[in-house]
Amino acid sequence: MATSTPRADGLAGLWEQVTTPQPAPGRVTVLVVGGVVLLALMVPFVWHLLRHGLTIVHEAAHAAVAVLAGRRLSGIRVHSDTSGLTVSRGRARGPGMVATVAAGYPGPAVLGVAAAWLLSRGYALGVLWLLLLVVVLVLLQIRNWYGLWAVLVSGLALVVVTLWAPAQLQTVVAAGLTWFFLLGAPRAVLEMQVQRSRLRRRGGRDTSDAGLLAGLTHVPAVVWVGVFLIVCGALLALGGAWLLAVWPVA
């Protein structure tokens, strides 16, 4: 008698869960979750803690574009001060290098928009698995112990929610993470500009993404900061519209 293997059943069941829309929270709930996330981003200690999640996605964006541009990825580092570094090999200048450096700050906003699109169609579990996939891919390239710890903790938290949390909690967590990436992306750009201003007053060398892009393109770093803000702001507006338009008022 033919029987299916547990592995096949598990994969089929998982795919069914990911592709089956879940009940969505009301618009009021989405607004409350967004408000909580916004407040959290304004508290320095909480922001510093949560900033590691943005750094992981930021570096993942650098890595993804580097590979797409034909560069050779050497590794990713995430540091305790929430900074990060993605090393790739290839031409030191040119469009590929510019695209690689420019991808970091918009990266979380792009992921947030993708998550908002999925949530707008009821795929909260799909959002969680998408984020887990990003974490796993970063884990394969991490090259320092603190970065390994940060990525593992993030991945473990996602696994717990994805596999064992009730469906309603999964949806709320997915909405919170979506707001986090959408709202956190412009917050990180503003933080970079503040750090650049402090560094400039001290006469230090600007090694931020905007500073690196200025050296690569001869376009002033402050212009790149403005470009990042415009892109992240536009993606926040788009993602926010998707989050709020599809769910009826509770």
TrEMBL record:
Keywords tagged on the record: Membrane, Transmembrane, Transmembrane helix
Record field: transmembrane: 28-50, 97-117, 123-140, 147-165, 171-190, 211-244
Full protein name: M50 family metallopeptidase
Organism in which the protein naturally occurs: Cellulomonas avistercoris
